[in-house]
Amino acid sequence: MAGLTSQTPQPTSITVHQQSRVLEVGFSDGKAFRIPFELMRVYSPSADVQGHGPGQEVLQTGKREVDVVTLEPVGNYAVQPTFSDGHSTGIFSWDYLYFLGSQQGELWQKYEARLQQAGVGRDAPMDAAAAASCGHHH
Questions:
Q1: The CATH number of 12-132 is which of 3.40.50.1100, 1.10.10.60, 3.30.2020.30, 3.60.20.10?
Q2: Least CB-packed of 32, 66, 91, 132 within 10 Å?
Q3: What is the pLDDT of residues 96-114, one digit of tens each?
Q4: Distant-in-sequence, close-in-space partners of 123: CB < 8 Å, separation ≥ 6
Q5: How far apart are CA 75 and CA 92, in angstroms?
Q6: Which of 60, 50, 8 is nearest to 31 (CA)?
Q7: What pTM value is reported for the model?
Q8: CA distance 40 to 84
């Protein structure tokens, strides 16, 4: 869990846009990001996405249509979304949201690269991706 540093800007507004599937976050440094739900879901900081060490990440697929059903505050430092696919264990700290928002171009590229490496499409059902990541090569 990334801790908060005094340099981390605080969110001044957080808006869930169900229609466009983005989380809009305005920060105290004047920056505002529109973070797609799919990106949040794919890069969820929870153990079942990140795994328990480097290289243990579970590749998430089929999340393009995912919605954020609820967004619960966690203390004064994070939010915990519940996604429409039932995933709810990711706690998104302010600095993590800032990271997702500010690096999303690069994060999408990394995601695309991982999909290619695994030989699965972005919209593949999760079980296909799980099978692919177990090293079954056709």
A1: 3.30.2020.30
A2: 32
A3: 999 999 999 999 999 999 9
A4: 61, 62, 64
A5: 11
A6: 8
A7: 0.87
A8: 13
